[in-house]
């Protein structure tokens, strides 16, 4: 009995020692709040932003934690860029065009005929930034990486769009001012709104259709409402993931390196790949549901569509040039990159 008591006491002592000496989970040196507007079930949230957060945590040995705030819970879409600039968020992902006239040179990548798919478009926009052609538009923050979605098409509830004149009088959700100019050329009524608002607006009859890539149809469940699809490659949308400068500058060099190593073309390409996969998935959903899909031969180079998009492109570039911005220089380089990024 004494031997059993001694053994029990010895075991208890070991347990107590183990409790004292066992390593405890260390709190992160930095916990970064990352805000964006995609729903938590969407692939960009899970496969781009969560994946980025996990990689940063692993590369920093847990010294950097990232808290994700999807669905505009920390800031509404038009306020997301300023949220990172002002410290409401430490990092945000947003669409540049949600803050009108703030990133006009960057949005040149949205013009028709530049982006063929998301990986190629992401290479173009990241290169424009890396080469300094649009960098001055981001002085308030530290951009981490930029990307585009794939080609944006027209998705309508009741009427299939076969030629530009079919859009006359229709209320079409437009993501940015660049797309609005294209829609105005065909006398459509562009309605500005962030993508997350599109479902309810179409459900209520506020809009007749949307301009979105197939990925957007899937992310925001719009294939439930829009059953007519016109694949024309009317535009692409640009995105930026950017960081509060003060927070970045407060980090020691080794943690800055972790952020820097998870920036630039590597993550632009990763994001582009996810968006391309979602384009394929969104289109498949529409096919499986028996929707009507019209693919315009030649896309924006089709004789019926080319004059419309050419006029909108020229008007946009001329408007920026009149403001003293080197729009034609950036556009020319974007076209060169469009070929080299293939």
TrEMBL record:
Statement: the UniProt record of this protein carries the keyword rRNA-binding: no
GO biological process, one term: transmembrane transport
A Pfam short name: DctP
Entry keyword set: Signal
Keyword Signal among UniProt keywords: yes
Signal sequence coordinates: 1-27
Protein name stated in the entry: TRAP-type C4-dicarboxylate transport system, substrate-binding protein
Organism for this UniProt entry: Marinobacterium stanieri
Top-level taxonomy: Bacteria, Pseudomonadati, Pseudomonadota, Gammaproteobacteria, Oceanospirillales
């Amino acid at each position: 009995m004494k031997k059993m008591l001694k053994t029990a006491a010895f075991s208890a002592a070991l347990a107590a020692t183990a409790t004292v000496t066992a390593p405890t989970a260390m709190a992160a040196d930095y916990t970064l709040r990352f805000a964006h507007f995609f729903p938590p079930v969407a692939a960009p949230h899970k496969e781009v932003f969560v994946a980025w957060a996990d990689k940063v945590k692993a590369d920093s040995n847990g010294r950097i934690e990232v808290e994700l705030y999807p669905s505009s819970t920390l800031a509404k879409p038009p306020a997301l860029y300023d949220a990172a600039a002002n410290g409401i968020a430490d990092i945000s992902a947003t669409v540049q065009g949600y803050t009108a006239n703030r990133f006009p040179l960057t949005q040149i990548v949205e013009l028709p005929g530049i982006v063929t798919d998301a990986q190629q478009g992401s290479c173009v926009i990241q290169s424009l930034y890396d080469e300094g052609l649009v960098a001055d538009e981001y002085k308030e923050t530290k951009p981490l990486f930029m990307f585009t979605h794939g080609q944006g098409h027209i998705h309508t509830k009741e009427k299939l769009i076969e030629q530009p004149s079919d859009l006359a009088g229709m209320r079409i959700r437009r993501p940015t001012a660049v797309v609005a100019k294209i829609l105005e050329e065909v006398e459509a009524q562009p309605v500005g709104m962030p993508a997350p608002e599109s479902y309810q607006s179409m459900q209520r009859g506020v809009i007749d259709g949307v301009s979105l890539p197939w990925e957007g149809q899937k992310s925001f469940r719009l294939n439930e409402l829009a059953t007519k699809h016109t694949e024309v490659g009317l535009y692409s949308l640009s995105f930026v993931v950017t960081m509060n400068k003060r927070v970045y500058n407060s980090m020691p060099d080794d943690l800055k390196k972790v952020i820097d190593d998870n920036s630039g073309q590597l993550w632009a390409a990763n994001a582009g790949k996810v968006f391309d996969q979602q384009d394929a998935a969104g289109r498949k959903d529409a096919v499986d549901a028996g929707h009507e899909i019209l693919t315009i031969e030649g896309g924006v180079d089709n004789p019926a569509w080319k004059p419309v998009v050419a006029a909108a492109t020229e008007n946009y570039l001329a408007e920026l040039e009149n403001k003293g911005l080197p729009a034609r220089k950036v556009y020319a380089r974007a076209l060169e990159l469009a070929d080299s990024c293939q």
